[in-house]
Write a structure and sequence with these properties.
about 280 residues; 15 helices; Alpha-Beta Plaits
Length: about 280
């Protein structure tokens, strides 16, 4: 019974994704969804299992398993635009598949359960940025967050313009937009990381997807909580947090609370196991 309780979280996450996989398979009549969400669920469950077993690179394994699958297989091989432009494209086309399903599960409704876990475990942009040397920010957070709303609006206007202009071969354009978009994201992310000495600068200031993620993450069921009786206020959790979150405050209004990517660095480094 103790073992089952210990591994309840990976079992629960696997069950959630299997439920999604089976539901979409049966309702959409496409076995791809069974494979797709089963694979993602198994990858996430494996990562959580390895974290519980105190394996140092547990999260990185999930990032590579899920990030490369979505970037290389879904994006480059299947030619699906999984960026935010792809979401707008399928949404305006009235098609509930590909990017629209991905966004609904990972970035719109999913965060009500697992917050911004997408950013910590599945994002193929962050997958690369997290290999850069600045794991924790070396300077106070900048007030550049407004840039994400500019990027969000630009992505929307780009797709709206394509539809209004009745552009031919729009699917080919969306695939090219996926490739160019990824190149721009990686370039911006790496340049910002070097300039600000912060691997996650792109996530904090530029990424348009966070416009969806932040409000939903506020109500997330899965949150890092602090046991005040154990906490000695050493500040180590804040120093190792890549997103500048004050995890010692259990309020939903804690500083940068909707920025938490559930990377568990605070939990791993807490000297008193208070988190």
């Amino acid at each position: 019974m103790g073992t089952l309780k210990k591994y309840a979280l990976p079992i629960m996450m696997l069950a959630v994704f299997e439920t999604i996989a089976i539901t979409l398979w049966l309702t959409k009549g496409n076995i791809f969804y069974l494979f797709n969400f089963s694979y993602i669920g198994c990858s996430i469950a494996l990562g959580i299992f390895l974290f519980i077993r105190e394996y140092k690179h547990a999260r990185r394994i999930v990032q590579l398993l899920v990030g490369l699958y979505m970037l290389v297989y879904l994006g480059l091989i299947c030619r699906e635009n999984m960026q935010i432009e792809g979401f707008w494209y399928y949404l305006f086309s009235g098609v509930f598949e590909a990017a629209t399903i991905h966004y609904a599960v990972a970035k719109i409704f999913g965060p009500l359960l697992f917050g911004r876990g997408w950013c910590g475990y599945a994002c193929w942009t962050a997958m690369v940025l997290d290999f850069l040397p600045w794991k924790t920010p070396s300077a106070p957070r900048r007030k550049f967050g407004w840039i994400r709303y500019v990027a969000f609006t630009a992505s929307l206007l780009f797709v709206v313009a394509l539809f209004l202009a009745r552009v031919a071969n729009i699917e080919k354009i969306m695939f090219r937009a996926f490739i160019v978009g990824n190149i721009l994201y990686y370039a911006a992310g790496i340049l910002l990381a070097f300039a600000l000495k912060d691997n996650r600068a792109f996530c904090k200031y530029v990424c348009p997807v966070t416009v969806f993620l932040k409000p939903m993450s506020y109500y997330s069921l899965m949150r890092i909580k602090c046991d005040k009786d154990k906490c000695i206020s050493c500040g180590k959790c804040r120093r190792v947090c890549p997103m500048d979150v004050d995890v010692t405050d259990n309020s939903r209004k804690r500083e940068n609370g909707t920025e938490c990517i559930l990377c568990m660095e605070c939990v791993r480094n807490c000297p008193k196991q208070a988190l």
